[in-house]
Write a structure and sequence with these properties.
The chain is of the alpha+beta class. The chain folds into 2 domains: about 80 residues, Phosphorylase Kinase, domain 1 (2-Layer Sandwich); about 180 residues, Transferase(Phosphotransferase) domain 1 (Transferase(Phosphotransferase), domain 1, Orthogonal Bundle). Helix content is about 30%, strand content about 15%. It has 8 helices and 9 strands. A 5-stranded antiparallel beta sheet has the order 1-2-3-5-4, with helices on one face. A two-stranded antiparallel sheet has the order 6-9. The longest helix is centred in the middle third of the chain and has 20 residues. The C terminus is likely disordered. Its EC number is 2.7.11.1. GO terms for molecular function: ATP binding; protein serine/threonine kinase activity. Keywords: ATP-binding, Kinase, Nucleotide-binding, Serine/threonine-protein kinase, Transferase.
Length: about 325
């Protein structure tokens, strides 16, 4: 499978494929670097184009966050297919790695605390990822974990597109199986926990090593909250408690935010005597205010103006999450 000709880029090899798009490794001529380019597979695929544009918007909202894959640009091929130019991550399939050998606890905790910071920022901007899972967490050129694949991201409160459409049942919460379930940050909290569980054990918390793992059987176990124990002698009891709290079947009983989930993992680090991993979460800056103008101070301002980079950053104008 060969990628399309794109001016300024040289095709190298395929990297993977999804439901509506293929991903290829290209070498960009200027600046000289390897990049991953995601291209809508079929000509005239309007839904695929919308999802790709939505993904570009989502990645732009999080531009510069150290735990999110970087977007370099967008474009359209000569035959009318939309594409994204993204940071190339040499390790793009952590799921395959942990299936063969689960992560060490210290690495799993560090990875998921960092990812939780990126997810918390996305939630504060009013959006939900909706497809957090091991295969959507990659390692960049420096071995740093980054979250990818924002193609089914949605505004908080927006209805899902359909049951079993746009998510992976192995890592998604029970309410995401409902066609009438609005997108909620609590769905991502569940997925963060189920992904952490997978990194530690090599399997989803709802997979049965010897039983039926069809989508219907797994969905049933998810609905009932039936999961096995972690089964790791080196894992403190607090770790399993943190994970189970984030996967409460009733969303109202679930850990309330990605930040609080990350803080739970930080407590586990402390209990284990590990260095604390920070979450990159930017607080919103207060607006500068001017002092009342009186007869003796017509030109005096109280407080220096603060420039918020989010207000000055250029963003694509042709894309919408609506």
């Amino acid at each position: 499978m060969r990628g399309p000709e794109i001016p300024g880029f040289r095709w190298v090899r395929p990297l993977g494929q999804g439901g509506f798009a293929d991903v290829f490794l290209y070498h960009q001529e200027l600046p000289s670097r390897d990049v991953a380019i995601k291209v809508v597979r079929a000509q005239g695929d309007e839904r695929g184009t919308r999802e790709l544009h939505r993904e570009a918007d989502a990645m732009t909202l999080l531009a510069g966050h150290p735990s999110v894959v970087e977007l370099h640009g967008v474009g359209t091929t000569s035959d009318g297919r939309a594409y994204l130019v993204m940071e190339y991550c040499p390790v793009a399939d952590l799921l395959t790695q942990v299936r063969a050998r689960p992560m060490a606890l210290d690495r799993a905790l560090e990875t998921m605390i960092k990812i939780s910071g990126g997810v918390e920022m996305f939630h504060r901007l009013g959006y939900v990822h909706r497809d957090i899972k091991p295969s959507n967490i990659m390692l960049d050129a420096y071995g740093k974990p980054v979250l990818a694949d924002f193609g089914v991201a949605s505004k908080v409160g927006k209805l899902e597109v359909g049951a079993f459409d746009g998510f992976s049942v192995l890592w998604a919460p029970p309410e995401q199986q409902d066609v009438n379930s609005p997108a909620s940050p609590l769905q991502d909290v569940w997925a963060l926990a189920s992904t952490t569980w997978t990194f530690i054990t090599g399997r989803s918390p709802f997979e049965d090593p010897i039983g039926d793992n069809s989508a219907a059987s797994i969905a049933n176990r998810v609905q009932r909250g039936r999961m096995r124990g972690l089964g790791r002698a080196d894992a403190p009891a607090e770790l399993e408690r943190v994970l189970r709290a984030a996967m409460a079947v009733d969303p109202s009983e679930r850990t309330p935010s990605a930040m609080e989930f990350g803080q739970g993992l930080q407590r586990v680090q402390k209990e284990m005597g590990l260095p604390r991993t920070d979450m990159e979460i930017k607080e919103r800056r207060p607006k500068a205010t001017a002092a009342p103008v009186g007869a003796d101070q017509k030109t005096r301002l109280r407080g220096a103006p603060v420039i918020d980079p989010d207000k000055t950053r250029l963003r694509p104008q042709s894309y919408s999450f609506e």
